[in-house]
């Protein structure tokens, strides 16, 4: 018969702006992905009014993030599927929510953490907006562990 109460986690969406401290949520999402055999999708949103990275810079940042995630695997047999995507949106929050919906993600993992006071305010508000807009579960990791 069917197992009761076992949540199916097929796709975990991890929005990233490539700040160093995001390793916390990427690692957490990676652990979840290994446990549930889920696919990790790293998403970077280019805000239409924001700073733009060159595609070469983006490729490099994604590559590093994927390498770090794959280093979480303890045994070579433990496959973790990691894919990357870049989209454009008016703002990060609406881009993330729309992407999660159209790509049938099961969960979004984000943090409320950022480098600067202004950054913390902005990123905090992005996470809050995603939580309020998103029809699917958002796992919000509290503001930086060990932040100054």
Write the layout of secondary structure elements.
Elements: E1 11-15, H1 23-36, E2 39-47, H2 55-70, E3 82-89, H3 92-102, E4 107-111, H4 117-133, E5 138-141
Parallel strand pairs: 1-2, 1-4, 2-3, 4-5
What does the model show?
By secondary structure, the chain is an alpha/beta fold. Helices cover 39% and strands 21% of the residues. It has helices at residues 23-36, 55-70, 92-102, 117-133, and strands at 11-15, 39-47, 82-89, 107-111, 138-141. Strands 3-2-1-4-5 form a 5-stranded parallel β-sheet, sandwiched between helices. Helix 1 crosses helix 2 (55-70) and helix 3 runs parallel beside helix 4.
- Residues in helices, as a percent range: 25-40%
The end-to-end span amounts to 51 Å
Q: Numbering strands along the chain, what is their spatial order in the largest sheet? A: 3-2-1-4-5
How many helices? Answer: 4
Sequence stretches where pLDDT stays below 50 over 5 or more residues: none
Question: What's the shape?
Answer: globular
Mean pLDDT: 79
Rg estimate, integer Å:
15 Å
DSSP E strands, number? 5
Question: H/E order of the elements?
Answer: EHEHEHEHE
Structural class: alpha/beta
Largest pleated sheet: 5 strands, parallel
The fraction of residues in strands falls at 15-25%
Could you give a short description of this structure?
The protein is α/β, with parallel strands linked by helices and 148 residues long.
Throw out a few tags for this protein:
alpha/beta, 4 helices, 5 strands, 5-stranded parallel sheet
């Amino acid at each position: 018969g069917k197992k009761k109460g076992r949540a199916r986690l097929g796709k975990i969406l991890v929005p990233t702006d490539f700040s160093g401290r995001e390793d916390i949520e990427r690692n957490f999402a990676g652990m979840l992905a290994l446990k549930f055999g889920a696919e990790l999708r790293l998403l970077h949103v280019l805000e239409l009014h924001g700073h733009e990275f060159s595609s070469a810079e983006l490729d490099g940042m994604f590559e590093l993030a994927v390498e770090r995630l794959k280093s979480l695997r303890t045994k070579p047999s433990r496959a973790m599927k990691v894919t990357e995507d870049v989209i454009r949106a008016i703002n990060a929050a609406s881009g993330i929510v729309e992407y999660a919906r159209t790509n049938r993600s099961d969960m979004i993992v984000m943090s409320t953490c950022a480098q600067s006071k202004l950054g913390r305010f902005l990123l905090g508000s992005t996470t809050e907006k995603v939580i309020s807009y998103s029809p699917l579960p958002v796992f919000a990791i509290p503001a930086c562990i060990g932040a100054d």
